[in-house]
Amino acid sequence: MFDVLLIFRMDEDYKRLLLGAANVFLIGGSGKMGVFAFSIPKERTVLLSLVFVVGLCLGLALAFNKMKALLKEQTGKHKIRLLDILLGYNSFLKDYYEQRKKDIDIDVKDETLAAKENDLKRQEKELDIQRKLIQEQKKGILKLELPENGEHILTESFIRKIPLFVNHMCKFTSDVDNLTTDFCMKFNGEGEGESEGDKNKNAKCLKGYFAGIGMYVANDLFGSSNDEVRTHFRILENGKYVQYAVILGSKIVDTKLSDVPQGKSLIERSFVLQKSLVASMNPESKYNTNTKWEDYITITYYSLKVNDSPFLSMGISIKYAEQFQDMLYFLSYCKIEEFLNTFIQRIDGKCDIVKTLH
User: Is 275 helix (H, G, I), strand (E, B) or coil?
Assistant: First the structure.
């Protein structure tokens, strides 16, 4: 094939070399030596020469057809024409080879880009599937519907804590129930050193009762007797909700609470809804007291009121939301305010709380 290409390109050096070799073989010594060696008659020498020439021509014709077929199979923008070969356009062929080299490089780059593009399409498809799966999963996600319009997704971690929360809640209600029974007896005059008719003593007894609730909140509900959980009570006084008692862990402290003006706050909202409210779920209703506590729940004793306004409120604040916030949500969901209001009504039946503290 290469020989045919050189002949058709009229490469002079190659043609002289090929024809010279043929002459040497047919005419020169090598040809004569072959004739003498095989004792070939002279009359057959012409026939052998003719056969050689015909064979060469047939070979060239076959190679020529093969070259035409190969030229037709060319790809790319730049192609070699048969005429370019026959006319010996060497510069064109050189440019062709250079361009084909560039095309091959481009093809390689295109293949690399195509591979990257396919990979990106695959990743995009995977992300799309994941998005659809997430959307489908959301339809079946369990949520806690919390007042006022809050939702807390039940994570696997939260679900695992529920049995523990239930145990804590049961222990808390049992302890507060016993505490309430004990203090009801004191208000009846059956307790040591307490008289039902003595307002100051009743007030002192009430503070002890609320301090007991605060201690059970820390110990029973949160398992903390240090300063990570704070329970506080406020009462309505001169148009503001002021500090009544603060229990930090397991002890009463003199920490000063900020006054909350009567009006729009979680206290009033809790009173209207008669539900406990978690601050993180109701940011629009809470009053900004610049508190250091990360979250808290507000409970209003809606059976105690002055001029249709709530008189006594309770708050449970947590220092570390990551550790205790799930418990706040659980308390709100379980309506802890209903349990506490039941106990407070029993105490109020023995000692008029508003009259004693107002």
Answer: coil
Is residue 201 in a domain? Answer: yes
The identity of residue 91, as a single letter, is S
Q: At a CB cut-off of 8 Å and minimum separation 6, what does 157 contact?
A: 326
- Predicted pLDDT at 159: 85
Tokens of 203: 């007030």
- Structural contact between residues 278 and 288, judged by C-beta atoms closer than 8 angstroms: no
Amino acid occupying residue 156: E
Closest C-alpha among 199, 172, 209 to residue 347: 209
Listed as ranges, residues in the chain with pLDDT below 50 are: 1-15, 17-18, 21-22, 24-35, 37, 189-194, 196
- Closest to 71 (Cα-Cα) out of 89, 91, 61, 63: 63
Distance CA 258, CA 261 (A): 10
What 3-state class would DSSP assign to 358? Answer: coil
> In angstroms, what CA-CA distances link 192 with 60, 187, 282?
132, 10, 44
List the structure tokens of 172.
């808390």
Burial of 352 per CB tally in 10 Å (0-12, 13-18, 19+)? middle
Cα–Cα distance, 50 to 135 (Å, whole number): 86
Range of the domain at 43: 2-73
**Domain of residue 167, CATH code:** 3.30.450
* Residue 97, CB-side half-sphere exposure with 13 Å CA sphere: 5
**DSSP assignments along 278-342, one per residue:** EGGG-TTT------S-SEEEEEE-TT-EETTEE-EEEEEEES-HHHHHHHHHHHHHTTHHHHHHH
Among residues 23, 46, 73, the one where a domain terminates is: 73
Whether residues 50 and 184 share a domain: the answer is no
Residue 173: what pLDDT? 93
Q: What is the pTM of this model?
A: 0.60
> Residue written as tokens 């070799």?
21
Are residues 337 and 217 located together in one domain of the fold?
A: yes
Q: In the chain, where does DSSP find H-type helix?
A: 2-8, 12-26, 29-37, 42-72, 82-86, 90-139, 156-187, 199-216, 266-273, 321-333, 336-350, 353-357
Looking at the structure, tell me whether residues 217 and 350 fall in a common domain. yes
Residue with tokens 């971690």: 157
